[in-house]
Model the fold of this input.
Amino acid sequence: MTAFARPDRNLPRNLLAWVSDGTLWLIALLHVVLAASLVVTLFFVAEADAKEAECGGSNVLTALAKSDPTRFAALEAEAAAVPNGKGIFWKIEKDGIAPSWLLGTMHVTDPRVLALPTEAPAAFEAASTVIVESDEIIDEKKSAAAILMRPDLTMFPDNKTIADFLKPGDRERLEAGLKARGIPLTLVARMKPWMIASFVALPACEITRKATGASFLDKKIAEDAVSQGKALKGLESLIEQLAAMDSLPTELHLRALIETLALGKTIDDVFATMTDLYLAGDTGMIMPMMRAVDTTSSDDFGYADFEQRIIVDRNRTMATRAEPILKNGAAFMAVGALHLPGKEGLVELLRAQGFTVTRAN
Done:
């Protein structure tokens, strides 16, 4: 499998008005599900040159603020109404125990993301236990073996291929989009759409860094914990994450995959925007931004399913499994940033367990 080719940038300039909700839904999924990032590390072999590791892209919200300030203001108001939508680093306290900490992560290798918030390194050093989404990520061989043991979650059964699920005209779009990235359709035809998306819904720079051995943020935190002799605890198995992804309808994944391929190099702009929001701690803006990019109803494309299965249900599982660990105090917990905000986000769920959770950055 070859590295991404450089697609044409002959795409609409007003990206926010053009990109469908399906595309950003898929990209958000890759940011919030650790297993998706791990798939890239385990199964993608890059042949890109060093310059592909340099990321570009422009913030589409910055452009929107200039071109349509009224719409941008409406987005800001919606984001401001999201509970705990500001901040990616939180302090967790309860009487009688040492404080613990909660970090929202992005599952990427971007050096700006790897540089933790100012307050986080000292908290990490003081922690005796480190909690991540899955502790399986530190052993790539075991991770690969676990994924390969469940081909039903990553491959179509009964000799079916992705062509069996394509609507008229979509095969040509899919084939052309994959070809532009140096991936023959025949090579990935039996893979489920989300699996292919793990390769194509990331900018070339991110693919290159992961393929050349760079650790994404969660993996680096887990590795540092082990190297420093801290206890490492996982809240989910990789198979549980894959099963959550696989539970979403194939047609949703497929539509998002085809639309993502159509983005071409403009994927860099989408990632630049999401990264800027993360670095600014504006996690509450991410979902409103995604829902605003198209006139299509979010329910029509499965946003309700996405939020319920990939975020809300997993939030509850994480909170339940984290509680007995956090009750011992002195823990450093790092999970995808989209799990923190909202009425059913981890910050609120931990408060419901009796912890005091306050923004620390």
In short: The longest helix spans residues 303-326. The radius of gyration is 20 Å. The CA atoms of residues 94 and 354 lie 7 Å apart.
